[in-house]
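User: I'm curious whether this sequence folds into something compact or stays loose and floppy. Could you predict its structure so I can see for myself?
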Amino acid sequence: MNTTGDGLLVIVPTYNALDYAVLTVETLSVSVPDAKIIVVDDTSPEWTSGVEKQFTSLSENVTVHRFSENGGLTRSWNYGVEKGLQDGARYIAAGNADLRFPLGWWEPMRAVLEHSGGLVGPLTNAPGCEAHQDIRKWQRGYNGGHQQADVDETQRRLNRWRLRTSIQRRLSGFFIAGRAESFDRARFSSEFVYDPSNLMIGNEYQLQSLALERGIKSYVALKSFVYHFRSVSRGLNDREGDRGWSRLN
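Assistant: Here's the prediction. I'll summarize afterward.
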């Protein structure tokens, strides 16, 4: 089942580990074909002349922006959010570059957004500190596989189970979506959505704190799943042991 993006813009920040990022963009463009995807590269030393073509060949909805010098994850998210606001996106999602998306992941997230008007994140295999987003808490017999068939099957099982649609909880920053106006209302300043002095860690929590002060709550979509390799796009993958494309497929 392919899902209609209906005005979705997804930000994919990259810094090396570009094979993971290509897989992120590929599975995203297959699962939500009309979603706009912006790859924001933080001056990856691994970048070559063919990398941009590799991304843009995946979908006509993929664009790439490269910074001329390294500046951290927060700058990449800020750039992508502001681009989405300028271009009239209805929904914006800020993610990592080491994800695999199953067919059908977006529709339950969009449903929660339409009902709540807040920020929303999916269930995942590697939620960091947010145990309530751990797929193992909600799905018995989760097999932990990272192949596309495994990820698709996890989403199919969520579709069949009679779970609650959402719970109100703080979200891991590996993937957070919201209506464009929610990001705009939760901004750190008139110029930046995320505090630019916070280069890497905790920016997602600051965003959610500012959002909550303005009446915008955070929710977990219990019927949506996104697989997280957790390389954080900045070095060796702690689950797979290397950056090898063959290890992902």
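Summary: The first helix runs from residue 18 to 31. Residues 8-229 form a domain with the Spore Coat Polysaccharide Biosynthesis Protein SpsA; Chain A fold (CATH 3.90.550.10).
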